[in-house]
Amino acid sequence: MHFTKITSPDWVPSSPSWYALYTKHQHEKTVARNLTSKGFEIFLPLYATIRNWKDRVKLVNLPLFPCYVFLKGNLERRLDIVSTPGVHALVSNAGQPAAIPAAELEGIRQAVGSGARVEPHPFLKCGDWVTVKCGPLAGIQGVMVRKKSVCRLVLCVEMLGTAASVEVDAVSIERLNEKLSTAHNFSHQEGDCLYRRDLC
Question: For residue 146, how far is the Cα from the chain centroid?
C-alpha cells in the first residue's frame, strides 16, 4: 500500500467512497477543518483522554487514528485535496486511491457517536468475530478482547493497519463464524520519501 499524490485527471470513482488522507503530525484537525470549509465531507473520529501537565489536568479530544483523516468522494477535486496545508498524500494502492470499506468506517462512526468509551487499540491480525446484538452499538462487528475484566470490541481499518476499541457488555455480543483476515503488508511512501507510522 502506497501513499501518493495524484496529479493526473484520468481517475474518478463511479460512486462516492471513503478514502484516507495521510497528514502531518498533529495537523488532523486543521486538515479536517480546511477541507470541510472547501465543501468536502470529512470524518475525523476523536476520543477523549486526560492529559496531565505540571500546572493542570485537562480533558482533551485527540484523533482516534493519528495522522489520518477520512474523506468521502469528490476525487475529481483531488488537487484541492492534496494542496490543502497539512495533507501529505492520499492513500493509494497500485497507483489508484484505495477505497475503505464503508462498513469499517460506519462501525467506527457508530461507536464514536454512541457515547461509549472509545480508544486506540493495537491492530489485530486474527481473532474471533463477534457482533453486538442490542443497544446503541447494535449491528457493529469486530473482534472481542478482554482488558482486565472489561470486554472491548476492536474495530479495525485493515487497509491502514490501525484499530480502535469500544467497551461493550459481554451479554450483548454474539460470536460469528468468521475470522479476521490477515492484514495486508504495505509501506507508506510518496516518491522517494518513506512515511513511518511511528513518527505520528
Answer: 22
Tell me how far apart the alpha carbons of residues 200 and 191 are, in angstroms, rounded to a whole number: 19
Contacts of residue 11, Cβ cutoff 8 Å, sequence gap at least 6: 75, 96, 97
What distance in Å separates the CA atoms of residue 22 and residue 4, rounded to the nearest whole number? Answer: 10
Q: What is the pLDDT of residue 126?
A: 67
* Closest C-alpha to 140, from 125, 127, 155, 128: 155
User: Which pLDDT score is estimated for 182?
Assistant: 37
> d(Cα 151, Cα 167) in Å, to the nearest integer?
6
Q: What is the DSSP string of 87-124?
A: EEEEEEETTEE-PBPHHHHHHHHHHHHTTS-EEE----
Long-range contacts of 146-150, Cβ-Cβ distance < 8 Å, separation of 24 or more: none
- Provide the terminal-to-terminal Cα distance of the chain, rounded to the nearest Å: 18
- Asked if residue 95 has pLDDT above 80, the reply is yes
CA distance 137 to 185: 30
Cα–Cα distance measured from residue 94 to residue 92, given in angstroms and rounded to the nearest whole number: 7
Provide φ and ψ at 34, rounded to 5°. -65, -40
Q: What HEC string does 33-54 produce?
A: HHHHHCCCEEECCEEEEEEECC
Does residue 57 sit in helix, strand or coil? strand
Instruction: Give dist(CA 182, CA 176) in Å, integer.
Output: 17
Give this prediction's pTM.
0.76
